TrEMBL record:
A molecular function GO annotation: protein-N-terminal-alanine acetyltransferase activity
InterPro entries (alphabetical): Acyl_CoA_acyltransferase, GNAT_dom, Ribosomal_N-acetyltransferase
Protein name per its UniProtKB record: N-acetyltransferase domain-containing protein
Pfam families hit by this protein: Acetyltransf_3
Start and end residues of each N-acetyltransferase domain: 20-173
The organism's place on the tree of life at top rank: Bacteria
GO cellular component assignments: cytoplasm
Length: 187
């Protein structure tokens, strides 16, 4: 993709679609991030060592450092006012133009298209600004909501990875999805 700026910063205005936008996390979001980790279905999303607002502030600062180093980009999904969820892409496989995506939506905003719209926005940013060609994501088989988000955002099923994740002593199979820069935009 000629003329693309690798590692381009996302402005504070973010990327928008249907009233949903991505923007960098800000220090003022720390309490919201901490509270999000206490929500339903979020136990596997909580980062180790994030127990206080100060920890969340430090994490947000580390995410900014990751973006500056072109290692990962972590965005708040918002409606312009409230944080609705998060999108993250890591770029450690830069040599192959591959990004790994993770995402979550706060429970009270699930089922409204927040996740799929946020993921479409992130894909647009990754292909257009980060010069990535292949985006990958995955979910536990017992998480059909995450599957719906990926599918609605144009990510096709690539396959199953047996016993990939370990939570609380239990191993879980995952389903991997991918979207290519050459794939058509989802409706």
């Amino acid at each position: 993709m000629a003329g693309v700026c690798r590692g381009a910063a996302l402005s504070s205005e973010g990327v928008r679609d249907n009233g949903i936008r991505l923007r960098p996390w800000a220090p003022a979001d720390a309490a919201t991030l901490l509270a999000a980790y206490d929500g339903a279905g979020m136990s596997t999303e909580r980062l180790n060592g994030v127990e206080t607002v100060e920890d969340a502030e430090r994490t947000i600062a580390e995410w900014a450092e990751d973006a500056a180093a072109d290692l990962a980009y972590t965005f708040a999904v918002t409606d312009g006012t409230d944080v609705l969820g998060q999108m993250r892409v890591t770029t450690q496989l830069r040599v192959h133009q591959i990004g790994w995506i993770s995402y979550w939506t706060l429970e009270k905003h699930r089922g409204r298209g927040v996740g799929s719209t946020g993921l479409k926005l992130l894909a647009r940013y990754c292909f257009g600004e980060l010069d990535l060609f292949r985006l990958e994501t995955g979910h536990r088989l017992d998480n059909p909501g995450s599957c719906r988000v990926a599918t609605a955002a144009g990510f096709l099923v690539d396959g199953r990875e047996r016993q990939k994740l370990l939570y609380d002593g239990v191993r879980y199979d995952t389903e991997t999805h991918a979207r290519l820069a050459t794939d058509p935009d989802p409706a």
